[in-house]
Amino acid sequence: MFSLSGSSFTNNSLYGVSRCLTQSRKRVSVPMVVASVSSNGRPADRNVSVLMENTLKEMRENAPVIEKDSKSTVTGGVGDVYGEDSATEDQTITPWTVSVASGYSLLRDPHHNKGLAFSEKERDSHYLCGLLPPVVVDQELQVKKLMNNLRQYDVPLQRYMAMMDLQERNERLFYKLLIENVEELLPVVYTPTVGEACQKYGSIFRRPQGLFISLKEKGKILEVLKNWPEKKVQVIVVTDGERILGLGDLGCQGMGIPVGKLSLYTALGGIRPSACLPITIDVGTNNEKLLKDEFYIGLRQRRARGQEYAELLDEFMSAVKKTYGEKVLIQFEDFANHNAFDLLAKYGISHLVFNDDIQGTASVVLAGLVAALNLVGGNLAQHTFLFLGAGEAGTGIAELIALEMSKQTGAPLGETRKKIWMVDSKGLIVRSRMESLQHFKRPWAHDHEPVKELVNAVKLIKPTVLIGSSGAGRTFTKEVVQAMATLNKKPVIFALSNPTSQSECTAEEAYTWSEGRAIFASGSPFAPVEYKGKVFMSGQANNAYIFPGLGLGLIISGAIRVHDDMLLAASEALAAEVSQENFEKGLIYPPFANIRKISAHIAAKVAAKAYELGLATRLPQPENLVAYAESCMYSPSYRSYR
Ligand SMILES: NC(=O)C1=CN([C@@H]2O[C@H](COP(=O)(O)OP(=O)(O)OC[C@H]3O[C@@H](n4cnc5c(N)ncnc54)[C@H](OP(=O)(O)O)[C@@H]3O)[C@@H](O)[C@H]2O)C=CC1
Ligand SMILES: CC(=O)C(=O)O
Ligand SMILES: [Mg+2]
């Protein structure tokens, strides 16, 4: 007999572990399965297996950990038992996490289910005999079969739903599929298909993913967070659904975006799935169509604004910090710009937060531009930039370009900004409009006569680089692209808006209208284009290149704040990954197929910057940050359940 937190239990029962935990905390919501153990060491309950390696002897030795720090014991759960393999978490295996679901429950537990890949021995020791057909296959064959199945679907949304079903059935297989077929599956789980999924979320909704925090939860968000089964959350992607891609206000149905972004955190950045938490804050929607839709899943009211909104967000941000600590990374995603800039400014000084649309996008576009200089020549300061769209993405990118120019030339920001021009829905942003401009547009109001149409702005400003961040599809008309091609031997054209329907132009339009001279990249992917016998491949200028590596870098360094210099470091790391071979094909981004290696390099640069700025808390600094980042990455290969 030994004592634990004042409670006691005998060495043939684990029940006491659960009891004492319940006593040491007001409430334990860890998905822990605990059972009595019979004399042969097997649990009496067939839905539970005991992890044999973690003997009771080891438990006794480890027991004081619980006594000393009862809070840290609540970080376990079934995932830790089989050794989630990421060093991005505290590796301490807490002694009470000794049992996991088995039998029928194990087959229905997506974190541990292996389907037909359970070995004979595992089937025997985990009560699976008879629950599976006799054949045993390996994970590679499962991947092959599923890819064959997925390719049978012609409709992208069917592929999306098949992938979501897989994620809920067998998490490791989902990630193996995604990692090994990233170029083929990214458009399925991410843009463009995720956009359609969000639009139809109510109709296709099967099982909830992530946490929904609505106005109804005001005053009890802390309690709501406790309902989430994982206690070691390291990254949260949160949206309020007001600007989902370029599709506008999709309210609660925006949940597809945090879910999709976090699956990329794992697949592309190696953050373990159990550390990722998607959240949708539901303050209503102003989308009349959704409000009338009988299948809509959110609050059926118009959006809360002002104090009511601010109070909910405030409660949410403090509850998150209280629950997961100050080093949990919060990524703001797809908020409308009238909230996005203010939230970033407000919480950027007290929390580890960044806004992906403002900052992640800036970093990825700057990387593409730096790479493009290899093809078009000159340095950043020798170019002139024109944006269509002066919101989060547009002004975020513009500011980072201006900052980089300023660092390169020593010129003050006020000067470097003058090389950057913006057009919004009312035309060119000029000084005479200053009074009526939102604060984030003001730095871009330069001296010029008013210009209404984009094509005229192109002709007057004579940009070398044209960037679309308007969310308005097909706004780079033939006239606009031709004007760019008249002014420039190699016009640089980015059509960043997502999904594909909102892209400012297609790859085909960019290449044909510029007679094959455009250096083109887009937010959503386009298939290669053949023009006059030559094949043109365009890059995907999407923040998906940046946020997984940025997040990994912040986590492995234990960073407590995000700094602009980290975004510049991420950008530099990404640009450095574009090879000569890529340039020869006209590409300014490396292939997504190499993304895990790219993410490790981005993470290393970001972490190094965190250490340099004194913002890192994980000490000592690892000697080789790239190797360390790689060693921390989640692997989707199955574990052996002995
Ligand atoms: N590729 C990537 O990685 C990313 C792509 N994006 C995409 O960028 C787009 C914009 O996002 P975001 O910046 O957050 O959105 P915002 O709503 O913040 O900004 C949109 C801007 O576009 C302007 N605009 C809208 N329609 C037109 C039009 N027809 N002509 C000229 N200007 C127009 C708006 O003008 P006004 O201010 O006058 O209303 C506003 O300035 C979305 O489609 C999004 O998917 C966003 C982030 C990352
Ligand atoms: C890519 C992205 O973040 C967006 O389109 O909003
Ligand atoms: Mg976004």
Automatic annotation (TrEMBL):
<feature type="domain" description="Malic enzyme NAD-binding">
    <location>
        <begin position="358"/>
        <end position="611"/>
    </location>
</feature>
<dbReference type="Pfam" id="PF03949">
    <property type="entry name" value="Malic_M"/>
</dbReference>
<dbReference type="InterPro" id="IPR036291">
    <property type="entry name" value="NAD(P)-bd_dom_sf"/>
</dbReference>
<dbReference type="InterPro" id="IPR037062">
    <property type="entry name" value="Malic_N_dom_sf"/>
</dbReference>
<dbReference type="InterPro" id="IPR015884">
    <property type="entry name" value="Malic_enzyme_CS"/>
</dbReference>
<dbReference type="InterPro" id="IPR012301">
    <property type="entry name" value="Malic_N_dom"/>
</dbReference>
<feature type="domain" description="Malic enzyme N-terminal">
    <location>
        <begin position="167"/>
        <end position="348"/>
    </location>
</feature>
<dbReference type="Pfam" id="PF00390">
    <property type="entry name" value="malic"/>
</dbReference>
<keyword id="KW-0479">Metal-binding</keyword>
<dbReference type="InterPro" id="IPR012302">
    <property type="entry name" value="Malic_NAD-bd"/>
</dbReference>
<keyword id="KW-0560">Oxidoreductase</keyword>
<comment type="similarity">
    <text>Belongs to the malic enzymes family.</text>
</comment>
<dbReference type="InterPro" id="IPR046346">
    <property type="entry name" value="Aminoacid_DH-like_N_sf"/>
</dbReference>
<dbReference type="InterPro" id="IPR001891">
    <property type="entry name" value="Malic_OxRdtase"/>
</dbReference>
<protein>
    <recommendedName>
        <fullName>Malic enzyme</fullName>
    </recommendedName>
</protein>
